[in-house]
Amino acid sequence: MSKIRAGIYGYGNIARGIEAAILKNTDFSLEAVFTRRDPSKVKVATKGVKAVAADKVLGYKDRIDVMFLCGGSATDLPAQAPELAKHFNIIDSYDTHAKIPEYLETVDRQAKLGKKAAVISVGWDPGLFSSVKALLAAILPDGKNYAFWGPGVSQGHGDAIRRIKGVAGAVQYTVPVESVVNEIRNGSVKEYTVRQKNRRVCYVAAEAGADRAEIERSIKEMPYYFSEYDVEVHFVSLAELEKEHSKMAHAGHVFRNGETSAGLDYSVEFSIKFGSNPEFTGSIMTAYARAALRLYNEKNYGAKTALDIPPSYLSPKDRKDQVKEFL
Fold first, then answer.
1. Domain for residue 207, yes or no?
2. Domain of 141: which CATH number?
3. Number of folded domains in the chain?
């Protein structure tokens, strides 16, 4: 059976996570990495794979089965995904939750025009957590879902900070409020705001002469990313940022608390803890890339999310083996 020929568009942390996942998934091969930087200065970790200028990507239309889009959600993916979805089966990890519905519609329209399949917003949240929340809500309709992220490094939020004028580097940690986690773990079904559940801690290296007060204001007032949360901003040197904040570990929890009958209460918890945010995200994206290709081969064009795709589409195993092993 021929391998799934993968392309990677953008070469940052997520892209390297996908590379690591491809090495673990023998039904994939990495064909090319596309970059907006000077390709001669980009060294691809995978032996024999070259970096290619991003503006040459359409020359690979017949050589790529699935294109992984690894840009940031703030500005990259909204521009890149609709354009590339006309020419390639794509997968991305777009994570601006409030804007996913309109983003989905835009990518869906372009993918259908190009007769391609797109799977968007695939990571651990949105993506894996989304599927868990939907499943638990269906099982316990009389109840509430709760999600917590961290403690760990949020890639999308760090990327958003780094795009602020005067920022040389930044890392953002999402930290659950433990007292609220414990309340929910003990069965609470109260309403909690996002501010009550998680806080955000930012370490920022400013460029020489930059207005630090303006940088801090821009972070704390940034919609979708920070404005709804309690935010701490700590300014550090670039050397300290690289030394003390280079690890990419993360964790998260999804809860569903509810009842089936009066006096019969339930609390279901799904939790994850992982050593590398980009490598775990890349592993999830790689599994869903199989689904994108299966959808394309079925002529099921357009954009889908994790909520639309059955788990069987993610596995390299055929249905008979999945039934035998997983049931």
1. yes
2. 3.30.360.10
3. 2
**Does residue 326 lie in a domain region?**
no
C-alpha distance across the termini of the chain, in Å = 25
Is residue 162 packed enough to be buried (19+ CB in 10 Å), middle (13-18) or exposed (0-12)? middle
The domain containing residue 298 runs over which residues? Answer: 4-125+278-321
pLDDT in tens, the chain (327 residues): 589 999 999 999 999 999 999 999 999 999 999 999 999 999 999 999 999 999 999 999 999 999 999 999 989 999 999 999 999 999 999 999 999 999 999 999 999 999 999 999 999 999 999 999 999 999 999 999 999 999 999 888 999 999 999 999 999 999 999 999 999 999 999 999 999 999 999 999 999 999 999 999 999 999 989 999 999 999 999 999 999 998 889 999 999 999 999 999 999 999 999 999 999 999 999 999 999 999 999 999 999 999 999 999 999 999 999 999 999
Q: Report which secondary-structure segment, H or E, holds 220.
A: helix 212-220
Residues 132, 220 within the same domain: yes
DSSP β-bridge partners for residue 167: 206
CA distance 81 to 268: 35
Dihedral sign, Cα of residue 231, residue 220, residue 12, residue 133? positive
Query: What CATH code is carried by the domain that includes residue 108?
Result: 3.40.50.720
